[in-house]
User: What shape does this take?
Amino acid sequence: MSALAPSRIVLLGAPGAGKGTVAKVIKSELGLAHLSTGDMLRSAVKEGTPVGTQAKTFMDRGALVPDDVMVALIEERVSDADCKGTKGDVQFLLDGFPRTLPQADALADRGLGPHKVIYLNVPKEVVVARLSGRRTCLGCGTPYHIEHRPPQKAGVCDVCASELVHRSDDHETPIRKRLDAYQQMTAPLVGHYQDVLETIDGNQPPEVVANSVLYAIGASS
Assistant: This one.
């Protein structure tokens, strides 16, 4: 990793903005551990860690996991070896957290505030089109898009020949509800992090977005 590159990065952007794709690029370039809160929750529950056990009590009844439990989950995760730099400093690429201002404050209070925040700015209608066009393989989970990445045979996975489905949360009405919730809860973080924020136009070809992000974090000339 470049000596000038930030070692704690947070990805911001609406659902469908392309955070997952960008995370793969940053992880490959900088070697940072990619902390996806969804993956971390599932892993902690499966392993039966103290925080995972606590989180499971909320997840089992369909309730949101409280902020303090989520922050404890991150504290637990960053103690792992892959989140330690050569000088013992904490390093990570955080995707899916913080989602609210109180969560951002909780990170800062624990000395885990980001050095750089990448905000992928994508128009709302573009996001709706991206998400509503997604199809997912029932067998292996391979993602497709009816316009940008269609299967060779309509409705059939190229990898395992299983059926492709249009998930219930990828229909327009629930998508717009998710975007409204994002606007109310998460969008204020853009202003909160303005001192360390880099805004990237996410409505461009993936390779252009990737190069812009790498330049913004000092990992590309």
